[in-house]
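Quick one:
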Amino acid sequence: MNNVESTYAPGDVTVLIADRPAPEVTLHEKEARIAAGESYGHFLTPETPPSALQERTFEDALARNGTRVAGDVRRLADTLHAELGGTLTLVSLARAGTPVGAVLHRELTRRGADVTHATLSVIRGVGLDLPALARATAHRPAGSVVFVDGWTGKGSITQELQRSLAGHAVAPRLAVLSDPAGVATFTATHDDYLLPHAALNATVSGLLSRTYLHGDAHAATRLTHLAPFDRTRAYVDALDALVQTTPPGSPPGAAPHAPVQTALDLARAFGARDPHKVKPSIGEATRVFLRRRPAALVLRALTPDTAHLHALADAHGVPVHVAAHLPYAALALVHER
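Output:
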């Protein structure tokens, strides 16, 4: 099987995702097919070059939060090294987990760990790409495997890992930088804050498209038309440089109490009927405005980390609500047919 080629630096990651043609549809058709019960994993909407707002949001977030991200990478590396020992098999979840896995891989390598890093596909409602996992973990101890993502929203990916790995030798252990849902096995923080790469898509993820099913294969395509805007290597290098000069972040503390249910209850007050259309966390809310048809935005407060969401909501003409008791920094509602 031919895997899709990425623009990550050699040695940062092995991409275990099949290179197959993308089944592209319009946003209108995508929403109609999802509303009819079809998995989003069967099609893609075309990805356009990042807007000026996206580029500015990324740059501002890297300048404002880069040191915090670096400290959280250090904290997560400390935790993984302490819990799993000197042999680690990082399996990042494309796309948001891949740059985190790349930076973790560099940091753990500097510490002398026996560490590998591969990225593969997981699709909500479909599951984890188990043949790719078998390749990623060949000749590696099952107990060394940890899945890596950027942040959590409602915990859907955690559930997919649990379902896909039921009875499997590999445990569904998830490591993230930001875990406002309180569902990850390992996290650096439970705070919901803006990770820079949440503002962009393929251009900080090796020019890889979102993953989809092509027959029975989990697949992606390289979005070569976005090459002039690619920041993948520069982003990983910038974070890695900060990691080397930043102390570990503070321990994450206790997980939040029932944040997902609280968010769902609050969303109903703003008209949400389908829990699948409720997307809590800054990262997930940003994705709604970049890839879905948004219906409303709820913010805990207007802050520098949520200013881009307010601007996106204004551009889409959707209402913005403020709810001080929202357990996440942001929550977006997808339009319901």
